[in-house]
């Protein structure tokens, strides 16, 4: 009703609402199969849809698919919506789904996302709006991998080289917005899709301002030139005023990544769990969060994301207890005459981690542990320290997903060159749990297994899990309705109204 009145009374001035955002890097390819950088991924998210998506509670719900069922643990049937069209007006059908899958496997296309479909045996069109997916074995991500954006067969089937196609810069999708303008080292503009199958977005344009410098982004926010932006704890505590807070609503959500100290478990010092427990107990994580983030963060207790199906209700917590830490070190054979000594290695370009290393060095020094810090340029760090496992302790971080993949980090088989089990963690019970979880499509059962796994890993202490920084987003107060959730604030963007 509001939009209708707006159009009738003020057709030009008030109906052309624009959402102003910032873009810190050049998008490379606006293609869900090739969008490996964050800028490309963000814009692709407006242009394309998957078969399913997360709702605001983190549950999987239909997107281009209206329903699905497992006829067998290895046979998944999707019923597609019948009211979806590509931006050029061509109907979306099951043939597009089969084509997108086939293209992801094509030798002409180099995509890291092909591994998501490694358990898929076949994708078959049963009729215009029905797709059958057969898996080689039951797989717990059988449904979630279909969040991948779909591509239009009628356009892409005529492309000889998908890596260089003009469609990567002028994409045609099914999403709520169409890409109108994309400049190299310049702005990107998207316009609302009036035929979007849910409903046309209320905000008619999204204008991404190309601002690669974070300081300039912050100044643009302070000048009220952006509608949404991210702040650091320092900025929110020390560098904004009442006028800024009157213009922007502050949305505080748990971050999507954690920082950890990882022990090289092949090193004799760290094979003794008493040593790992002592280091864990001697680090005051709350103090770390106060100093580094002005308390805008939370203690990390284990490997999976808080608020998800994999997070246990009763957390295995390790209390800050320096006296008990000293006693454990004494039991392990370390004292003032024979102190525990090691080097923490991290990447030099992350100042927060460098400060964290210095605080940890000071805290461990209070119980007699001698810590050296080695900071390296990122590529040198990866190539000479992380990949060949030439470290005693590393300070790093991982991103957190709503559906975690424990295999990559925690399975014994991932302790290899190129694998992400960097610390050499081996636990046969955890391996068994990972394998059992991977081979079921019952997500309730997967959740129970992952919660047990969480507790087992936390108890083994291959890492000292340190902190999860908060995500601090500011939003123009004129924009409504903003509904913060575990997946952020953009989940209901098509419903937003900006006067």
Q: Main beta sheet: strand number and arrangement?
A: 8 strands, mixed
Please bin the fraction of helical residues: 25-40%
Please, what is the CATH homologous superfamily of the largest domain? Answer: Dipeptide-binding Protein, Domain 3
CATH class of the largest domain: Alpha Beta
* Category by helix and strand content: alpha+beta
Number of domains: 2
Q: Could you name the ranges where pLDDT drops below 50 across 5 or more consecutive residues?
A: 1-15
Mean pLDDT: 93
Question: What gross morphology would you assign?
Answer: globular
- Using only C-alpha atoms, the radius of gyration works out to 25 Å
Question: What's the number of helices?
Answer: 16
CATH architect. name of the largest domain: Roll
Please give the alpha-carbon distance between the first and last residues: 14 Å
**What name does the CATH topology of the largest domain carry?**
Dipeptide-binding Protein, domain 3
How many strands appear in the DSSP assignment? 18
Strand-residue proportion: 15-25%
Q: What is the element layout, followed by pairings?
A:
Elements (H helix, E strand, L loop, with lengths): L1 H8 L8 E6 L14 H10 L4 E3 L5 E3 L2 E8 L2 E6 L13 H11 L15 E8 L2 E6 L17 H4 L20 E6 L5 E5 L12 E6 L3 H9 L5 E3 L2 H6 L3 H6 E7 L2 E7 L4 H4 L1 H10 L2 H9 L3 E3 L22 H10 L9 E7 L3 H15 L4 E7 L1 H9 L6 E7 L6 H5 L17 H11 L4 H18 L2 E14 L23
Parallel strand pairs: 1-10, 15-16, 15-17
Antiparallel strand pairs: 2-3, 4-5, 5-7, 6-7, 8-9, 9-10, 11-18, 12-18, 13-17, 13-18, 14-18
Helix pairs in contact: 9-11, 15-16
């Amino acid at each position: 009703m509001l939009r209708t009145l707006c159009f009738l009374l003020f057709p030009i001035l008030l109906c052309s609402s624009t959402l102003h955002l910032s873009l810190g890097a050049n998008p490379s390819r606006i293609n869900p199969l090739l969008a490996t950088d964050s800028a490309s991924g963000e814009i692709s998210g407006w242009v394309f849809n998957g078969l399913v998506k997360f709702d605001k509670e983190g549950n999987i719900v239909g997107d281009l698919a209206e329903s699905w069922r497992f006829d067998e643990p290895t046979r998944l049937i999707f019923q597609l919506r019948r009211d979806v069209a590509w931006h050029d007006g061509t109907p979306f059908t099951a043939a597009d789904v089969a084509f997108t899958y086939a293209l992801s496997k094509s030798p002409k296309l180099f995509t890291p996302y092909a591994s998501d479909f490694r358990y898929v045996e076949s994708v078959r069109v049963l009729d215009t709006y029905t797709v059958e997916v057969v898996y080689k074995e039951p797989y717990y991500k059988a449904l979630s991998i279909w969040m991948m954006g779909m591509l239009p067969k009628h356009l892409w089937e005529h492309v000889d080289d998908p890596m260089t196609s003009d469609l990567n810069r002028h994409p045609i999708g099914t999403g709520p917005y169409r890409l109108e303008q994309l400049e190299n080292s310049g702005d990107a503009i998207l316009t609302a899709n009036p035929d979007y199958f849910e409903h046309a977005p209320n905000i008619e344009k999204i204008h991404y301002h190309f601002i690669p410098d974070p300081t300039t982004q912050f100044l643009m926010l302070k000048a009220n030139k952006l509608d949404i932006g991210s702040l650091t704890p320092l900025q929110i505590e020390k560098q904004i005023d009442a006028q800024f807070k009157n213009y922007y609503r502050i949305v505080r959500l748990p971050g999507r990544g954690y920082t950890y100290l990882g022990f090289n478990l092949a090193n004799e010092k760290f094979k003794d769990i008493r040593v790992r427990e002592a280091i864990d107990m001697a680090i005051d994580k709350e103090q770390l969060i106060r100093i580094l983030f002005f308390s805008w963060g939370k203690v990390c207790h284990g490997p999976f994301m808080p608020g998800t199906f994999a997070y246990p209700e009763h957390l295995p917590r390790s209390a800050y207890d320096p006296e008990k830490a000293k006693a454990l070190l004494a039991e392990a054979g370390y004292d003032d005459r024979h102190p525990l000594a090691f080097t923490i290695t991290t990447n030099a370009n992350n100042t927060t981690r460098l400060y964290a290393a210095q605080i940890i060095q000071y805290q461990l020094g209070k119980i007699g542990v001698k810590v050296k810090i080695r900071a390296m340029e990122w590529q040198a760090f990866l190539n000479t320290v992380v990949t060949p496992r030439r470290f005693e302790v590393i300070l790093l971080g991982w991103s957190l997903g709503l559906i975690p993949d424990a295999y990559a980090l925690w399975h014994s088989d991932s302790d290899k060159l190129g694998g992400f089990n960097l610390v050499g963690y081996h636990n046969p019970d955890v391996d068994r749990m990972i394998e059992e979880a991977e081979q079921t499509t019952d997500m309730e059962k997967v959740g129970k297994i992952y919660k047990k796994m969480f507790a087992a890993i936390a108890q083994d202490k291959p890492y000292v899990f340190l902190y999860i920084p908060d995500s601090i987003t500011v939003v123009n107060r004129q924009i409504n309705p903003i509904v913060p959730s575990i997946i952020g604030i953009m989940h209901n963007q098509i419903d937003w109204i900006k006067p």
